[in-house]
Amino acid sequence: MARETEDPGMAKASKVKRQRKKKTKENKTRTVHANLLYDNAKGEENPNRHYANNKIKTTKYTVLSFLPKNLFEQFHRFANVYFVFIALLNFVPVVNAFQPELALAPVVFILSVTAIKDLWEDYRRHRSDKEINHMDCLVYSRAERSYVEKYWKEVRVGDFIRLRCNEILPADVLLLSSSDPDRLCHIETATLDGETNLKQRQVVRSFFDLDCDFDPIKYNSIIECEKPNNDLNRFRGYIIHRSGRRDALYKENLLLRGCTIRNTEEAVGIVIYAGHETKAMLNNNGPRYKRSKLERQMNVDVFWCVIILLVMCLFAAVGHGLWMFQYGDKRPVFDVLSPDGTDLSPIMSAIYLFLTMIIVFQVLIPISLFVSIEIVKICQVYFIHQDMELYDEETDSHLQCRALNITEDLGQMQYIFSDKTGTLTENKMVFRRCTVAGVEYSHDANARRLAMYQEMDSEEEECTSHGGTLPRRDSVTSHQTPWSVRLTFTHFSYSVLSADKPSSDLQEKDITPDPQLLDKVNECSSQMDFMRFHSQPMSQLPSDLADVIDFFIALTICNTVVVSSPNQPRQKVQLTSTKSIQSNHLQVNKGSSSSLITNRSSNKGCSSMLSSPSAESTLTKLDEEQPPRDLEHNFGPVLPCYDGKAWNLEEGELRYEAESPDEAALVYAARAYKCSLVGRLPDQVTMELPHLGKLNFELLHTLGFDSTRKRMSVVVRHPLTDQITVYTKGADSVIMDLIKPPDTGSSKGKRQKKIVNRTQNYLNLYAADGLRTLCIAKKIMSKEQYACWLQHHLEAETAIQGREELLFESALRLETNLQLLGATGIEDRLQDGVPETIASLRKAGLQIWVLTGDKQETAVNIAYACKLLDPEEEILTLNEACALFNFTTFEIYPSSSPSSSSSSHTPPFMVHRLGLVIDGRTLAYALDKSLEDKFLAVARSCRSVLCCRSTPLQKSMVVKLVRNKLKVMTLAIGDGANDVSMIQVADVGVGISGQEGMQAVMASDFALPRFRYLQKLLLVHGHWCYSRLANMILYFFYKNAMFVALIFWYQFYCGFSGSAMIDQWYLIFFNLMFSAFPQLITGTLDKDVSAETLQQLPQLYVNGQNSEEYKPYMFWMNMIDAFYQSLVCFFIPYFAYADSDVDLFTWGTPFTTLALFTILVHLGIETKTWTWMNWLSIAFSIALFFTVALCYNASCPTCYSPSNPYWTMQRLLQDPLFYLLCVITPVAALLPRYFYRACQGTLFPSPVQVGRQLDKLPAETCRNILSLSRVKVGSPLSPKPPFLSLAKPSPKGCNIKDQRSFPSSRASIV
Where exactly are the transmembrane stretches of this chain (predicted)? Predict the structure, then answer.
């Protein structure tokens, strides 16, 4: 019985659980059906109806929503709410001070200006949206039985789209068919990530074997995929066929909106995501909003202005109450009755007057300050963009400012965190040296050739001009090299390496082979040719020669390089059309394909690992009987013997497009030894060897490079041995751990151990020379081993949960017990001007940390080359073994400095002549909560910090730790996707538009073409922007306080009644019109020191770091000065017109005039650089005031009876006393400030004032003074941190050494 009663409950619970599980699954996935099946059905029956259409709308407003929505957004700014409240308060009769309509004028003007700006920006977005939405594309129509033209906005999820060559994709499309015989579609993703090299996408596996054109009518499958997201490097899903078969979908099957079809005549796909659900639109976040440090300080002072306002109003209210109280029961004749006609008590009168005074004194809060700051920042950004010294001619790129509201932060930076590769270096790799089978080949001839190119570059830099038309580079990257910009040619041949070619292209491609290694390659190829001719097994080849040929095979095929023709950069080379190749050499197995796309910048574990859509079909093939192969079928015709001359044959006609410069450098190096990559298909890689001709390697699987594994592998069937071979290349720190332990009992094992030891020694030497190192290894698998691995890998590919982890484990099973073949050393040269830039920034007081993923030896050598580390300073090296011990015992640093670390000014720690080098594993310990404070204490006490082998996450954690713990201003600069998190965490993020795409640029606040431009951006433009805005804000506070105080002094003579002797028109428009223009000009154009002096004296940058232009006491000094000047401007006219019969406005109008003159002369005292625009703006302000006053006084005979402003200004201009007041009053008011500035500049000049004095000297004299480097004005100009040796012996395991014995680094080494 109990069981019976339990069953319904259990069944119900089970049903609820199933429904919840189904609902969860539905929330995580989307199901896409073909719209053709529902053409005749009602709209509500189409399962795709809930998905977004393809019409995009990036505008914020509509015609109806503009006014309410824009006002709502503007009222998010507290100042606007305050001013609207004041204006509405003026409509209350009891407390009003001005005409209600007039009081609304300023706030309406401010809101209108902002609204018009927002409307214009939105209209531009609307026009852009309309243009995009009305682009054409071909969509399949069931009624027409063909593809018809439709607008992009009419495309829906589930539509079939035909794509043509050079056409832009209108939506995210799943590729179902391609006219390419290999079922590939080539795309260019420059609009998404800035990379102009071709990427391959492939048709969905189940549609790969179609013998005829794809027919949308016959399509009856259902697609289940993930919800729309902004991850460009991930796409997961399944396609379910009517038979019930499910095939996995990958990012290699998805074509993203905004990409361009290349090298493919025609392709067909089904729309998966449309409109705002596409990945491109989800990544379109627009400019980021940040609040600058100066703005945060300003908000504090706005708050103090509110306090001052309330105090003044309270003082006036109490004064009015006491004034009324002294009359007792006798009401004064000027008393104002309440609305109901009764007398008001003194307390109520005081309360009403308090509100009235808020209206009268409202000008104390600068309503135009916020708008003026926005205008000035926009102007500053414009002038920064116009600086031609920040323009890079070779890449044709300017500085980009993506965050308009933090320009002044550029002048207050204290810490710089920089990436290395591509940021400090060119990221253009040049092959230098290699070791194969334990033998090192130094490539001395190649080194001499590189030295010759560098000499040519230096001569061209001095002799040639920057004119001429620059051709597009034919290298693997999208930018020209630094040396090609100096050549004045307009065209050169891509097919032959000639003297007219840019020297950087020659450095990267025209590699001089090492004679000994070339002889071995030729000997090996000759023996293999002999064995082939006599049908001998390849296992008889000597081990040293076998390793050599395997080494170059790995260099050639273990990559994702796409081969194309340079004459048609977007046209793939069709090997089948070459007469010298038999047709059966390139037969494609349609059931086998392999992804050729990698994402070397990914930082998400194994998310970039390539899955192989051919896994299932490959597994099926392995079970089939393999017929005996004729080795002749794997070769092309035999080519003539080669000598050691440079490679100038038909391979020079090929163009290699690689996703990383490292891959291209290795392919070009292999080509120099006649091992050339000549073709790549989805399931086959073709290379050419000397004597042997072309070999076709069947590509079984590709495991792409990612930042977690730090290696890539290809699984191929070797055409010579018919063995399944794994070729792996990657970082030495990873590959060396995966090498199979040698069996020392056998001669082969001893040989392997010897190779490993020798290779490790050479790797250390390469790293000491600053070369980037890669290890090459291989592994031979039996058919059964590979089939077993493939089965497990297929299960990992089709897993729903934890796919990345399973794929990582699967890759690890494949890439173990490797045989080491050799290693390479590649040079990545420093960018021009990097050492000088770093030296200049350090003189400016900036702490520079380099965070790199390179190994420690390479990073240290680079640090010496770019002058981050000084040979005279000691190096503290923290490795994993000493991490815990070091941080718990190294107590000298925190004990030798104040305990407080919250200062935002110059760090209180004493900076020692020390350099800190820390590796990634140690950094993981250091960033632990229990050790981060001690790590930070050690790091900030060192002059330089170098973090090696650091992951993208560690980079961002280091920046966040320094920013939050030390309360300093941080700047992060990088060029790749692995730098994005660091860039976003820092106060200011700078992206370098380099060789690794545009991910860093899109995430940054500022984008630079070169690292060296950072010097002028910070030291010059940053200094100017900060100085201008800081002085403008302080001037605003002073100006408003000075004008309001005039009315406050008058309250003592009018019974604190809230009356004003100044006409309300002048009161309202004084700040908005009469005094607005000069301060905008000064805030935009003022230069306290010239650009040349700021760059020659980097120490002047400390002025912004310490906030010397805007300290808290300066606000109060300005307020005191404002009240003093208002006293002078009030009482001089007061006593001048005492006992006269002038009316109120005739007496009050001079106050406005004198205040205007005083604040304009005050601005003149604070202006450092005078231009014709400064003079014009001041003249315009004075002319505008008198013009408005004369017109207004002539047209208003009975405005405010009994007193009225009629003819007031006309009478004053006829009075000599008025002119006398206009001279005496401003002089008396500004004399203290002028005296202070004169004395301070003469007796106690600041470094900036000294720099300004240098600008006034003759150019020759100034250069002589600066060249002597003897300018000494206090410590900021000559910071010389004392060198303190360690008081304690270094902990065991930590390496502290005198680097004076370190080998000198070369400037070209990176």
Answer: 78-96, 102-120, 302-327, 347-371, 1033-1053, 1115-1138, 1144-1163, 1175-1195, 1217-1236
